[in-house]
Design goal:
With about 775 residues, the chain is an all-beta fold. Helix content is about 0%, strand content about 50%. It contains 1 helix and 58 strands. Strands 1, 2, 3, 4, 5, 34, 35, 36, 37, 38, 39, 40 and 41 form a 13-stranded antiparallel sheet that branches. Strands 46, 47, 49, 50 and 51 form a 5-stranded antiparallel sheet that branches.
Length: about 775
Amino acid sequence: MPRPSATQPSLRRHHSRVHRPRLITGCILALATAVGFAALPAEASPARTFVVDSREAALAGDVERVSIDARGALTLSRAIEHVAGIDEPFVFAADAVPVRRGGGWLLGTGSSGKVVRVAGDGVVEVLATLEAPEVYAVLGAASGLYAAGSPDGAVVRLDPEGSEDASGEVIFDPEATYVWGLAETADGDLLVATGLPARLWRVDPEGERDAELLFESNDAHLRALAVLPDGDVLVGTAGQGLVQRLDLESGSGTVAASTLYDAAQPEIAAFAVGPQGEIFAAALASEASFVDLSQNNGAQGGEAEADASAPQNPTIGSRAGGAQGPRALVVRLPPDGGMPEDVASFADETIHSLLWHDDALWIGTGQEGRLYRWMHDPLIGADGQGGVGQVLREAELEGRQIVGLVRGDDGVGIVTTNGAALHRLDDGPSTDGTYTSDRLDAAQVARFGALRWRGLLPRGAAVRAAVRSGTSAEPDATWTPWTDVQLDLQPGDAAGGLVTAEAPLAALPNGRYLQWRLHLERGGSDAGPRVDAVELTYRQRNLPPRVTSFEALDPGAILVEQSFNPSSTTFEPWSPNRDGIFDTLRKEQTTDEARLKTLYKKGWRTLRWDADDANGDTLQYRLEVAPLAASGIVAVDGVRWLPVVDGLDRTWFSFDSTALPDGLYRFRLQASDGASQPLGDARTAVQLSEPVLLDHTPPRVGLNQREGERLIVVIQDERSPIREVELSVDAGPWRSVPAADGLLDSRRENLELDVPSDASVAILRATDAAFNVLTFTLEAP
């Protein structure tokens, strides 16, 4: 049998943010504006809100006698009465029994081939035990009670007073592997739909005429069968997924067949007919199907032949390995032959039964035993002729699959398997019901503020709320017990109009997780309350930000947006900068750091960092600088951290480093979440950079003399190693010059240059690691 599956719907949150740019004035180093920085003041609120106001969010919760509509509104569902449990492992088929035949419901079971009847008062009796183990087709007809066994079973007539030892009277053997459907025509004949091969037979239950083969399909199975009010017959195939209409009275001597719908899914499992003549069909591609399409997929009868080219992921049920798309959908076929319309789609559920009842289409599914109701949407204003509507989740029954929805004289029966039972659907709403939310995750330990709901509250109806919290991911003994909260309505709202109710949660202990529960009571009203949306506010315990990296880019590196083109644009700093001594680059328009690129500008430096905040707060940054003492530690006495910039909301800062004298410096970065937190609750993370060398002084010549045909030159630099030395003789091209020891890597380098004595001029250019350049003329010949 099929296995249950789970989904993870999303829950929307609202986050409030604040930006408070802070400026430093009157300091030795004044504020500088960062690349692309723009600080915009805004009002702040640290409160966040869980919002359940959509179908997706509402479906994440658990319902008990509560219905969820297309917009996520909660109302009391139809009352469902448990009639009887079935002492068999599986139920596969169901039909109503006419009153003249004893009333109740007829059920086909597995795996022992028993056919049982459940009376309206819940009494269960076995009418027969068929020779075949599975009973996929039963029929309560005016002419009698019938059942068919599979595989390789026959159609039998049941004795209404039968017993477990009875096997029934065989009236027809279709010589097929499966019998999927039984129906009665207006003149009292039986229709028998089979699989492997896919055939439709007409059978005289009294045996006065031979069985007549009406239709033979090219597909593998006639999976679904229904008789229309005008006498035509609907068949749904499995293998190709066709809905076909058969005219049994075509007058041509043969049955006229037309295809109404060719589904993308391989199986048509159930039909229902609406009051306007529209046809609803359930199309499946599901592992939970009763049909096995792994063999004979589209073939008529016979044994499957081995196929060496078959895919490695075989078909299970009616779903091919690796298949994409929903497992089940309901399609509406208009009576005028118009375009088919999808009215309901289920990604992870399997439709086993359909029923039109009380101006709505009822849909029974597995693996969670859920009952849905499709109805025309009153807010959209459908006229009842189209497929525009909404799907409401009505119930979730203990049986894992709803395999039968049957309307009879004893009411609408709901048949479940994997927990075989029969339930009865009442016409009115339940007297009360409960909705329990999904476990809400605040991501951090939080304080909870208030629970609010809005909707309709008719006179006499009531909505009661309870909450619980905890710090473990799943509710356990460490969670608080369910605690009732007092909901206060706005004055005058209790008269029955649109209301808003709110309950403070100040007494609820802090926790990371929370659940809320609403109990809806109909009271003296006709339908009970309607809850359109629920909001729950919370505030995380504020945690400090975290700086994960902080570095200085190479000397001269600056960050600009990708669209900047230095070949056509002059890129200059603001000069003079009236705010202070640090010139900064012009503001960038982009806010996407991924669109940055690196350029070089002499004398400039760029600091870059990464930071995050566990609360998701907006971070702002402050940069400070201080020179290093000889020990490499920032001096304390007489030296303080000097402000560079504050209120920065970007994770980099480029500035003109010539504002500082040559030397070693450390920069201090402070990341603050104060923009998202109220005064007094802000947290700050601090990170120091590695020592950063600022060097604006070019190299110098220590020695320059000739020794025969060679020039001996010594290049020295106070702070940075020599990066490159180039030589040009008589205005010729620049050529790299190696160091005497073969490697340019020191602050002092000895050079031995081959310069002809008759050369007119020789020019040497030396560049240090800070890109400071010295150019001079070597000793003349």
